[in-house]
Amino acid sequence: MPDLEFEDRYGHLGPVVGVDEAGRGPLAGPVAVGAVILPEGFSHPLINDSKKLSEKRREALYDELCESEEIRWTVSLVEAAEVDEVNVLQATYLGMARSVQSLGVEPGMCLIDGLRVPNFPYPHEGIVKGDSKSLSIATASIFAKVTRDRLMREAAIRYPGYGFEKHKGYGTKAHLEALRALGPCPLHRRSFQPIAQFGS
Predict the structure, then answer these.
(1) Model-level pTM greater than 0.90?
(2) In degrees rounded to 5, what are phi and psi of residue 13?
(3) Domain 5-198 sits in CATH 3.30.420.10
(4) Structural domain boundaries of the chain?
(5) How confident is the model at residue 200 (pLDDT cuts 50, 70, 90)?
């Protein structure tokens, strides 16, 4: 389970921010990036990498964490059009920087799930599989994932027929069949295959 080892290691530098994203792989919808500062000594028996939690457990944790006045957090969205403009990797980097900035504090260190980020405007360390090692990254992963999932469920109402409430924009068989029948909607990433083949 994730703990505060990395947070404690860098705590003397100032606020330590955990950063994680959700939604790099889907064919539709935004990339969501969570940034979290946990209070010193924070612990929670159930927080883990969001991918290892059931949707019901993630949703319950999100609601519980939102009620805590001690946790500082934000989620930034990079919409599909911007993903198409700069590519999904650069979009993720942009979302990470925006998310940290919108916390409104100068971080002593950012803990980022994955590799180091080129030209990142804040001091940071990339931690591979960080969402299963760092409690603040794991918490950020929950905020990002649940925020994005809820947006995609709302999108399913605006754009019926695609099944966004089920697959959240990932390229499932049902999603691909809906794309063939309906063509892409404004939430689809036009630079991604197989959507690019539909033209503009």
Answers:
(1) yes
(2) -85, -15
(3) yes
(4) 5-198
(5) low
